[in-house]
Each structure stands twice: as structure tokens, then as C-alpha cells.
Batch of 3 targets.
Target 1
Amino acid sequence: MEAAIRREMILNVEIVDLLNKQIMLEQKASSKYLAMASWCDQRELRNSAKYFYDQAEEERSHMMKIFKFVNDNGGSAYSPAVQEVSHEFESLRGIFETSLDAEIEVTNAIHHIFKKARQVGDFTSEIFLQWFVTEQAEEEEKVRDILDLIDLMGDMPLKMVDERIPTE
């Protein structure tokens, strides 16, 4: 049955496999952001907590967007297992650095799938992934701007830094 489904789908089989890995990566990013939100919440860093809660939801929506895309185009999307993530962070700056690392990991994975889709002629996936390419550039820029803000504020109390973290 799986072979019959794969024969009739629009998408390239190799791309579907990569998209399923991306579904797992997006879920992992969402879980990481929840852990970061919790750390901030525990320290009453309200804007940072909101930022990370929103990021967790955004990553989940990305996961669902890919999940639906695979299924809507004849593939079989797999529900990702929830991976354990660290809830230990040393500083607010450290959390945002970890966030940037996670965004870069997602960006690299999206670029890899995009290049592979182009290489194998899976134009449907390539067009779909263009939105993610743009989105990831924006996400990385947002985190880099926050890290610049933290650096500019230097030794200011965390509450004052947190008040300037964008929540929209």
C-alpha cells in the first residue's frame, strides 16, 4: 500500500523523507522554545517568556504546515516523537544564543531540502519551501537583533533588558 501511495504522489520520494525529518526538527525546535519560555517565566522575565511561547507556537505551526503539505500531495507524513530537551540555561543571553543556533539548524535543513528538490525536479516542493526560506531569514534576523540589544544594554538589570525584548 505504501508503495502505491508513493507512486501516485506529486512529490519526490526522497523529498518526502527529508520533509518528514524536517517535521521532527520543527517539533524539536518547538519543544526547545517551550523550555526557554519556562526558564524565563520562572525568573519573571515576562517579555522573554512571551517571545519564546510565541516561538514555540510558530515552530509547531511550521511543523503542521509541512505535515499537511506532505499528506495533501500524496505522501505520508509521520507524527514526530517528542524529544527530551534541556531546561537548563545559564543566562538570558545564553538562551538567545541557543535560540539562534536552533534557527540556524532549521535554516540549514530547509536549504538542504530546497536544493535537493531543485536537483530532483520536485517543483511543487521547491515552491512550497520558498516561504520557509524567507521565514528563516526573518527568524535569524530577529534573534540577532535581540542579541545586539542585549549586548548594547551591557550590565543593565535583566528586568530592564527583558522590557525591551519585542513581543510582536
Note: The chain has a mean pLDDT of 92.
Target 2
Amino acid sequence: MQKLHIILACTARKRASEPGYPRLRNVARAPVSDRVTEWVALVSAAPQKYVAANLYAGEYWQTARKLASRAESAGGTGVFVVSAGLGLVGISDAVPMYGATLAARHPDSVLASSDPTAPSHVRRQWWDELTCTEILRRNGPQRLVELGEDGSEALVMVCIGRDYLDAVATDLKNLVERLGDPERVMVFASGTPLVGLEDSWVAVSGSLRLVLGGSLSSTNLRAATAVLAELGASSPSADKARRVVASLTASAGKLPTYDRQRQHDDAILDWIHGYLAEVPNATKTAALRCFRDGGKACEQARFDRLFEHAREMST
């Protein structure tokens, strides 16, 4: 197989914790450039005592490691993480503990700046400026476009969420241009393709969960894994990936729908506080299941964020 790169996203959940580690919530609201400068100073001073592959946690990351393992078994594979706090890092790189995300409505979000412009602009500016620094002083590629320096035969599978795609969109388009063939880049994602990435887009429907299992957060990863399994020793391409995914989608049917009532953040926090009072050692998964069983609606990532916030408030 040609040189294959797997692009993953960092996760808010980490396997480690330590007092006083860098968190974006502790960086003052300011223009993006100023926040990047202050953030880089904080992270650069933190000890790099973790391996990226072992730092992140949650179902997305467990599934990501399975995809990386399958790809690596074919040989000639590089696995990289799009990190909101560290830039582009290799899966085996030494990294510090940190708290940063490109998602909205999170205390460690890059969007908590004084910049009044659209979220997409803030995310892209953050990524552009962060990856121009020497935040970890590492020797590997600092930006996605640099993966094209391996030569025109390089292949890239991208399995990151919409907020992260939003941030790296320009970088990713530059990579497609450098490779000279959009078929060599496979973006596994749901929704409308980003402008300029239409020919690289591999549409992943939520209904694939019925065939591949797992939660929505890991469906793109499971789809990419299924593509590699189906193609075997054959090199993947965007067109081949689309055909495999389309076949799986056709066999999946429709996702079941639930008549649940959407709740405001304050109402969900009140519910979580009450639940934790009764079940102090409850997990987020068990709490969300109980919440939904009561006829209430909340997306998993949002519930996870509020659950963590409730935990912090109670300590």
C-alpha cells in the first residue's frame, strides 16, 4: 500500500490528570493572536511526560486506535492528531497534559476570545497561528499540507469532527492541492461537504451506527475502518471509500427516532446535580441513559460537558 496517513482529533477527556495543568479557561479573553501567544507560553513550560496515544480517552479515541492499528498493519502509515492545544502531533509524540478544544460552549474552547468574528474565522485563525509556533519544538510536520511532502503517492484519511474540520479547512485544501489529486484525500464526515473538499468528501450517515455499532462520535472512524477492511491490500481512494460506505449505508435502514424533549443547560445541570446526589459515583454514560429514559433529549458531547461541569461545581 502507498504511504497512508490517518488524521484523528484530540478529545476533551484525558486519561491523566494533575494539578495546575494548562487550561484555556485560564487564558484571558483577548484577540486570538494574544491568546495564542499566552497559551504557547503556558504549554511550552509544562512537562511533556505523556505519549499522545495514551493521553486521550473515550469511545472516539478507543475506536481511533483500532483504526490506526489496522492501518499500521498494512505498513507505511503515519498517524497524527489535530489538537486544539498543541497543533498537529504524532501519535507517539511526547506531550503535556492540557485542556483545550475547538468545540463551542466549553470553558476551554478557543472560541472564548474577544474576537467578534464568526466561529469559523476564529477556529481557522487559531489553527493557523498555533501551527506557526514551535509549541512542542518537535521535528515532525506542523501542518496537514506538509504531509504532501512525502510525495504524490501519499494517501490521507481524515476522521475528525465538524468543528475540527472547520479549523483545518484551509490547511486541508492546501494539502489536496499539493498532492494534485483530491482522490488521495478521504474526508469521512457527515453533512454538506466543505467548499473545496467536495471531491474528497466521503459522506457518513448516522444510520451506519445500525451496521457498525458505537455512538455517532465514532461513526466516521468505524466507516474508515470498514473501508480498509473491505479493500484489503488495495490502496484506498475517495471514490473507493464512497462506494464501500454507500453499500453499507444501503443495508443499514433508518435510525429509530425518539420523542424526547430538548432541555436548556441550566435544567440539565439541575438534573445532573440531583442525580449525583443519589448516585455519587455514577458514570456519564449511565447518567445520560437515565436522563434519556426519562423522556429528555441531550446530545452526548453536550451532556458530557455539563456532567464534567457539575462534577467540578460539587468539588
Note: The mean pLDDT is 89.
Target 3
Amino acid sequence: MFFNLFDAFEEKYEDIQILGVDKSRTKLDQHKPCTVFLELSQKPPKRWLDLFAMKQVSPFHPVRARIEKHYMVVTCQYRDYEKNLMNLLQKDIEECNFEYRKLENPD
């Protein structure tokens, strides 16, 4: 049996997930914009970050977020945080995971 050295170093991609809010870094204020730090399951790969950034430039996207290492940093109004912020961002992450997998495995 032939052993391919490159296969041994290839890392398996696992979907990125939101683990939760980092309460020590998150600033919530009902009267000012909030900065929310969401911990991610891993630091996203470069191509995944590009997909996420493309979603963020849409004028129709209601929330602005950026990725810093293994955090998603979101600036929003407190009412948006309470309503549906997590559902919206989870949907964005799931779409990026799906699109990233298609790029990596175009079969």
C-alpha cells in the first residue's frame, strides 16, 4: 500500500460553530451600541474568512461583524442583540461552512 505524505499533514475541516458569548469582553448597554464577542470553535481558514467578508458587504445585511482570531465581533444595538442576533449570525456561519466545503470539495 502506498503512503502519501501530504495526506498525513492534511487537516480535516470541521464546521465552525458559535460556542457562546464571551461575557468578560462583551459590552452591553441599552442606550449605546453594543460590542459582542462571540467565541468560535476555531480560527476560520482564509478562504472561509473571504466568504464571510463577502456576506458583510451586502447593503441588505442587517448586522456588521468581523472575525478576530477565534472571535466574531459584532457591533449592534441592544434591541438587535436581544431579538435575533444569534440566529442571524448562526445562519451566516452555516452558509459560509457550506460554501467553504463546496470550494474545498467541488465534486
Note: Confidence is low (pLDDT under 50) at residues 1-10.
